[in-house]
Write a structure and sequence with these properties.
Layout: E1 2-4, H1 15-23, H2 27-30, E2 32-34, H3 35-40, E3 49-54, E4 56-57, E5 66-69, E6 72-75, E7 79-90, E8 96-101, E9 106-112, E10 124-130, E11 144-153, E12 161-166, E13 168-169, E14 175-176, E15 179-183, E16 187-193, H4 196-199, H5 209-221, E17 224-229, H6 261-266, E18 274-279, H7 283-286, H8 288-291, H9 298-323, E19 328-331, H10 344-354, H11 362-394, E20 401-403, E21 424-425, H12 429-432, E22 441-442, H13 447-454, H14 463-467, H15 476-492
Parallel strand pairs: 5-15, 9-10, 16-17, 16-18, 18-19, 19-20
Antiparallel strand pairs: 1-2, 3-7, 4-5, 6-7, 7-11, 8-9, 8-12, 10-11, 12-15, 13-14, 21-22
Helix pairs in contact: 5-15, 9-11, 10-11
Length: 501
């Protein structure tokens, strides 16, 4: 059983959406916790808080609670070690320190140096000393400051190692009131720029292709990827007068600021450290209201696609190379949205969402959308590929920009029997519980949270476009195909090693 006991933030949904989000697995986002956890804690457990660190370095981008050792030294018993000091507040010096990394099956404990001989040390050891003198902030009665000096074998530092400091345990022997952070051996900076496809509309965070790629890099290179995702729903390439900086919490699924891909580049922190850029762009410059509109002819779609997916893409890629000169850049192409495999009923229902007049001939609609989809996919691929060649030709460092070899077969198009794109569904009890009275519903698991925010002030995309924002975007299967293509391109570029497959 789950319950939400933390103070709700201003972005936490209420009412039906709160229950829906917990059911859909947003417990981490909402602050839900197992009720048994609190019941199993000691009645008077104490919490440990971190007040300072020495010998550890934070990433120069993002806000992840992760550090890397500032120095690596040799130890006669442990070999290469990291030595660092953490200042914590606790009620007593009898602290415990664990290392945890479920991704590699790592779960071990460090031991006080005074409690064992050096030969017994496996992962490392620590010493605790009370800090004397004045502290700049008052402490709760009974709480003291302690310096914890840690010697940790680098063999136990993975890209996702979590260090846990605590002084009490639950009745099940688990840490209670622990202070924790991740310690890794090195940072790898990555930036994701572009539109809703690059953002990953409708996908849970771990399903997004940028997350899959980051995990693969971590696994193969043994580094921690610091991923700056600046892409967002509705983004266009070209700067406009409507470009604006995000204020407060910004969620790319329901953007409250119009940030062109050009402006996204300027928002990347420590750009000189970025080693990988994954980007897309140009579909929103053309507009889905044109691509999926039977009133637009293929020659009009071709003209717009050539202008934005080639001419504007050249300008964009040149700026990326100038701003992030040490990065390998991978551009993803687009796919055929509608094909002969697309279900007529689904197409008619989706087209009617933005239609000003009723759809009279569904067969004619499908034929027109297929022609426009094929024209866009083919011309976008040609335009992006030509833009990449133009930028690489003029780059004194040679080829640094690559096109991911990505193709969605027609049978994977929207509303096909086995698609790689999100569609619509009539059978979505959870979304229906929100009482919006829709005929068909987005089938993605993010829809309830998106519905909660689409009507808020400041959203820069239209209501219908916001509610149905996942439709036509890669679903988990499609995102996995994207990730595979990007990973293979990283091997082509020499970032990752070639495999023998």
């Amino acid at each position: 059983m789950k319950t939400c006991g933390r103070k709700r933030s201003t972005n936490t949904p209420s009412g039906v959406a709160l229950a829906v989000a917990c059911l859909l697995g947003f417990s981490g986002w909402l602050g839900c916790a197992n009720v048994n956890d609190s019941a199993s804690r000691p009645a008077n457990f104490s919490s440990v808080f971190i007040h300072g660190m020495e010998g550890l370095v934070a990433p120069l981008a993002g806000n992840e609670n992760v550090r890397k050792p500032e120095f690596i030294e040799d130890d006669p018993v442990l070999g290469e070690v990291a030595r660092f000091r953490i200042t914590v507040s606790a009620t007593k010096p009898d602290l415990f320190i664990d290392l945890l990394d479920k991704s590699v099956g790592l779960e071990t404990s460090l031991w006080p140096r005074s409690a064992l001989s050096r030969e017994d040390v496996v992962a490392g050891y620590y010493e605790v000393s009370e800090r004397t003198g004045q502290w700049d902030k008052p402490l709760v009665s009974g709480v003291k400051l302690f310096d914890v000096s840690i010697t940790l074998s680098t063999a136990f530092i993975t890209p996702t190692t979590r260090l846990i400091i605590y002084e009490d345990t639950t009745s099940e022997g688990k840490p209670a009131g622990a202070a924790t952070f991740e310690i890794v051996n090195e940072f790898y900076y990555m930036a994701v720029l572009g539109d809703s496809i690059a953002w990953g509309n409708g996908l849970r965070e771990d399903e997004k292709y940028s997350s899959i790629v980051a995990r693969q890099i971590q696994s193969e290179l043994g580094v921690r990827v610091i991923n700056q995702v600046r892409a967002h729903n509705g983004a266009i390439i070209t700067p406009t007068d409507f470009d604006s900086l995000p204020v407060g919490t910004f969620w790319g699924e329901v953007p409250t600021a119009a940030i062109s891909v050009n402006l996204q580049i300027d928002l990347v922190q420590s750009p000189e450290l970025v080693e990988l850029v994954v980007l897309d762009g140009c579909i929103n410059d053309i507009g889905l209201d044109r691509l999926l509109n039977p009133d637009y002819e293929p020659d009009e779609i071709q003209f717009l696609t050539d202008a934005f997916c080639y001419q504007e893409m050249v300008v964009l890629l040149q700026k990326v190379r100038q701003t992030m000169p040490n990065a390998t850049v991978i551009v993803t192409p687009y796919y055929q949205i509608v094909s002969e495999s697309s279900d007529l009923f689904g197409l008619e229902a989706y087209a009617s969402v933005n239609a000003e007049e009723p759809i009279e001939d569904a067969d004619e609609l499908k034929t027109a959308l297929i022609k426009n989809s094929i024209t866009f996919e083919e011309r976008a691929r040609i335009g992006i590929s030509t833009a990449i060649n133009t930028v690489n030709r003029d780059d004194p460092l040679g080829q640094r920009v690559y096109l991911a070899d990505l193709v969605f077969p027609p049978e994977r198009a929207i509303f096909a029997p086995d698609p790689w794109l999100w569609g619509l569904t009539e059978d979505n009890e959870i979304v229906q519980a929100l009482g919006l009275g829709l005929r068909l519903y987005p089938e993605d698991p993010i829809a309830p949270r998106r519905f909660e925010q689409c009507g808020e002030d400041g959203v820069v995309i239209g209501l219908a476009f916001c509610l149905f924002a996942s439709t036509g975007h890669p679903n988990p299967q499609g995102a996995a195909v994207y990730a595979e293509a990007i990973i293979e391109t990283l091997r082509e570029a020499g970032v990752l090693q070639q495999t023998n497959d």
